[in-house]
Design goal:
heterodimer, A: 2 domains, five-stranded mixed β-sheet, three-stranded antiparallel β-sheet, 10 strands, globular, B: two-stranded antiparallel ribbon
Chain lengths: ~350, ~500
Amino acid sequence: MKRNVCVLIASSLMLWIVACAPAAPTPVPATSVPAAPTATAAPTTPPFPTKDVTFIIPVSPGGGFDTNARILAPYLKKYLPTQPNVVPKNVPGGEWRLGIMEMYKAQPDGHTIAIFNLPGNVLGQITNTAEYDLNKVAWIGRITDTVYVTALSPKSKFRTLDDLRAAATPAKAGVVGLTSSSALAMILSAEEMGFKVKLINYDGSADAILAAVRGDVDLVIYPFPTLQKFIVGSKDLTPFNVYAKERLKELPDVPTVGEQGYASLLSVVALDYMVGTVPGTPEPILKIWRETFDKAMKDPDFLKMMTDQLKRPPSPLNAEQAALKVKDTLNVYAKYKSLVEQYVPK
Amino acid sequence: MWLQGFQFALQPEPIFYLLVGTAIGLVIGALPGLGPLFGVALALPFTFGMPAATAIIFLVSIHAATAYGDSIASILINTPGGPGSVASCWDGYPLAQKGKAAMALGISTFGSLLGGIIGWLTLVLIAPALTAFAIMIGAPEYFMLGILALSLLAIAARGENIRGLILGGVGLLIAFVGQDPIEGLNYRFTFGSIYLEDGLPLVPVTVGLFALSQAIVLAEEGGTIAQFFEATGSVWEGVREALRRPMTLVRGGVAGIILGIMPALGISSASIVAYFVEKQSSKDPASFGKGNPSGLLAPETAKSACVVGDMIPTFTLGIPGSATTAILMVALVIHGLEPGPRFFLSGAAPYAVFVGILLAQIAFFVSGVFLARYFAKIVLIPNALLVPSIVLLSFIGAFAIRNRMEDVLITIGFGLIGYLLKRVNWPTACMVLGLVLGDLVESNFHRALRIGDDNYAIFFTRPIALILLICTALFLLWPLISPRVTRAFKRPIPGA
């Protein structure tokens, strides 16, 4: 028993030292170069990978982003040279900013990557509340996007778009975080479709959806996999529209936004699961990452897990396409800056 | 289906992972601050290659054993092993100090087993009905529930009312640090720090208040924890003590299940609430905090029932009852088991999972009974060795939750506060009650007002909210009413 305790304490101590190591040095400004490499020529690329990779997830465990990142991590390990561990690390807080900034300020040596949320992370940038610039992030690729669905509470007095437009009081929408992608999707849809909406903030998507089931809020907008069990083969919520080019095979009677006359919303109401690394990461390391990512996206086991999770095959993008997607999203949302600021009190 | 479930769960591979999971859970549980959330999140990636039911059995065995293991440190060294076992210190540690560590561990082990079984029976027998009830609990009801639980301050602070209320208020204030939960980007008491925007984290604060402060106290005392007493009693004596208190088991079990099925409440509040409910219903409340077996049995039963109770909405609705079951749900989804109303229709696997949950309770019970006598020897280790270990493990526990050094500083700060409070004999428990409930009360108050279009009537016009309000009033007024009620019932008798 004593021996067990010793082993436990010793291993805890090791854990402690290992865990502390990256946190110990004070953040180095991006321009300065660490002392040791200056001896050699400046443009040399540090070797990669030389240690475990940290995969930062800037949200708490359990949601869609956490799930996708955790599914992906072992496949990144599988295809990286020397197969280092890819360790998911939840750094929730400050509406994604804490986690993103932890990655943003890390050494640009390829050993820190993060999962990003488009358009959610764009919002911080256009309202000047975030310290990061998404255009500077070194993009590795997009895991997938997802299809949004709006669902009405069966207890709501609203049944059609005309009901919503004619209402004297705003419809109540359950959201999680006023700068989240789903809140953004709600605000833009209401604006384009011409109805008034009041956002009710919940702690998690499950709470917001339950509020709609109960009738405390009138509607919610969420990715299809999140809402599926409440709208397919269930009468908990009534699906209202689908943000996709074609109707979903699981919801053949539910119109697309295009059919409702708002095809323009398709380009803004979407959700992308992006992966990127530290600005200024040397090109050879990025090349390794991008090849690794592309191989992982084609791995049959990975594809099967993602398909089970999303109920459809994932739609990945390579690094170049992903960077373009980020640029587009920033441009599109810049137009909506003042609208968003009405809903997000300073 | 049940037969197939048993056949699957009793095969060598699931049983192997059940035992491995229980062992991992006991170790993680015993580390201060690290609770079920850490254990289950850590193990999730290892399950990717397993068959679905085996994976879930592995995770639920870690879940149950971590929650159980959390109490070992609470009882033996007054250091909560996780957020769910804060209340287990209050009567568990005094028992250990009296040399009855083995008995206290017996109470904890058996109480946890029965709590788990009560939770399991609820899960398999009446889960859908309970879930339908839990759905009806919205923002105004959560607010009223929070107020009802806050009224427990009256019991927590008995004898030290002013100090207790001050600390309860301080706990609430600490809970309000950070981002406004409803309006979003309004920051309170953050002093411009991004770190404070999310508020002060519960685990580092409680680890500091209870574990680190305890290390300082032990360092001052020197010697060993059980220095003044001979070690007496056995694990089985604890089991007998527990069996003598059937009503405590029922009260703890019911409290645990109710708080478990509500998505916003979990084990950190379940055990504390069960403790004070038990103290309120006791004939001898003054003996609480001095080593009353009921004061340990109630939170232990509640915690274990809550662990299973948390799974009820997860399985029946696909809505996790806590952060830990959120990870469990990720595992269910990854393994192709659809949580939600159709969960029971996915063949024999769900039944194997249910059998696994039951076996997990038995596994930690058996290991607990077997290991308790060795664990109990910790109280004989000199404090000079124990204190550095507690300090080290507290720092690891505070750090590992979010991998942030700032959390360790918070632990140090609250360690000093906790130590000062112990020196002047202020009831630290009141502060934790405020801290645990502050966010729930505040966010649901504002949320309810937004839903009710800023009309306070929403708190009185919804039946469940109104009932909860009446319960709170009765609860607070009971000491005044009870003599009259007793007299009213006795009055007709004098002629007889």
